[in-house]
Amino acid sequence: MTVNAQKHPTLESGRLLLPPIAATDAEALFAVFSDPETMRFMDCPVSRNVGDTLGVIERWMFVFPEWHATWAIVLKQTGGLIGMINYHHRNPWNRHLEVGYALARRHWRQGLTSEALGAVLDHCFGALGSNRVEATIHPENHAAARLAEHLGFRCEGGPLRQRKLVAGEYRDVMIYGLLRQEWLFRQAALG
Prior knowledge:
Elements: E1 11-12, E2 16-18, H1 26-33, H2 36-39, H3 50-61, E3 69-75, E4 81-91, E5 96-103, H4 112-125, E6 132-137, H5 142-150, E7 154-166, E8 169-179, H6 180-190
Parallel strand pairs: 5-6
Antiparallel strand pairs: 1-2, 2-3, 3-4, 4-5, 6-8, 7-8
Helix pairs in contact: 1-3
């Protein structure tokens, strides 16, 4: 039984729509997941074919929304899918979760990931009632660390040695955290 995508709302920002991910997104997302540079720090291996990407999407769709939600990142101007963003490892009783994302390389350094993550953070701190959002970032992923810090996350520790196993290799991560009160204060300051 797949989880009904309608359980996750479509989110929106200035340039982006974030509809719930669907199996029909596999081909477009394969363009992102097949790029070794884009996937270098991701928690899943590079997709060799559309079937690999479809398998990842189907796993996301079988998780109950209380624990996980994944959205496509779609440009409003073109309707093109350019990446994905999610929350996972949600712990509703302690009100925290983790976020992750991937964006097609040709769209890097345009503020699009920051925009998408801002919409997801609004949802997580608002509708989901989260008090804490975490991001685990590879120590060499300087762009992701800068993005997290730009949005108010603080590096709280690490490296956490061999925390993740990806394609048979262990990876270290740094842990970043953002509290609801910090996010709300930041949003109010931005006006």
